[in-house]
Amino acid sequence: MNFSPTGNAAARLGILLMLAGSLLFTLNDTLGKWLVSTYSVGQLLLIRSVAALIVLSPFLWRSGLTPLFKVERPGMQVLRVILSSAEAYAFYFAVVYLPLADAMTYWLAAPIYVAAMSPFLLGEKVGWRRWSAIFLGFCGVVIALEPSSATLTPAAIISIFGSLAFSFLLISGRALRGTPDVTLVFWQMVSAAVLGALTAPFDWVTPSPLEFSLLGLLGVVAMIAHVCINRSLKLADAATVVPFQYTQLFWAIVFGWIVFGDVPRLNMLVGAAIIVAAGLFIFFREHQLKKPVPEVMEI
Q: What's this model's pTM, rounded to 2 decimal places?
C-alpha cells in the first residue's frame, strides 16, 4: 500500500524529516570533529566521499550516466565542485581548532552572504528591508567572531572563507536549478575524493577496522540526511520546514558541550541569535516575493 500523506499530515511529516536531517548533519559533523583529531582532513574527505559515492551508486544506476556528463553551464559546474571541496576542507580544518558551535555559527551566516551578493552575481533586486537584515547579520558575525589578536586565529579566518565558499555554492545552486540533484552531488563527492586523495598521503594514519567504518559512516549519514531534507521539501512548503534547519546550531551546542566539553561563549550565543534572526527574515522576505531561495544547507 502506497502511503502519501497530504495536507497537515504531510506538513507534520515534512517537519519531522527536516528535524531528522538537521540532527543527522550535526551528528555527522560531531563525528567528523572527533575523527580529525586523529586523521588528517584529506584522509577523512577521501574515505567519506568514497563511501558516499557507494551509497549514491543505486541512484546513478537508475538515472544512467548520461546526465552526469550532459550538464548546463560547464564552467559554473567546475567552479561549483572546486568551491564545494574547498568548503568541506575548510569546515573540517576549522573544527579541529574551534568549538563545533562556533564553526556552525560562521556557516549559518552563508544565506546572509548570498543575499548580499545576489544583486551583483544574479542581478536580483534587494530592497532596504533585506539590506537592513544583511547589515544586522554581518553585525552578528562580528559579535560572534569578537575580533581581537586572540580570536582572529587562522582557524577563525578559514571559517569565514569557508562560509563564503558555502554561500557561493548556494548561489550556484540557484544558477544551476536545471541540473539534477544526483549530478550535483556526484561531482561534489568526486571532487572531494580527488582533493582527499591528493592530500591524504602526506599525513596518512592507517585506521583500525572500527575507525575505518566510522570514516565511511560520515558519507553514509550525510547522504541519508540529504534524503530526509529533500523529501521534507517535497512534502511541505519551504516556509514551513526550512526554519527548522537552524536547529543544527542547538544540536552543535549540545554535542559540543557533551562530547568535547565546549562551553558556549556569551558573545557567540548573542551573535548566533542575531545571525539566525537575520537569516530567517531574509528567507521569509524572499519567500514572500517568490524568489528562489537556497533551501538545503548542508553543514
A: 0.79
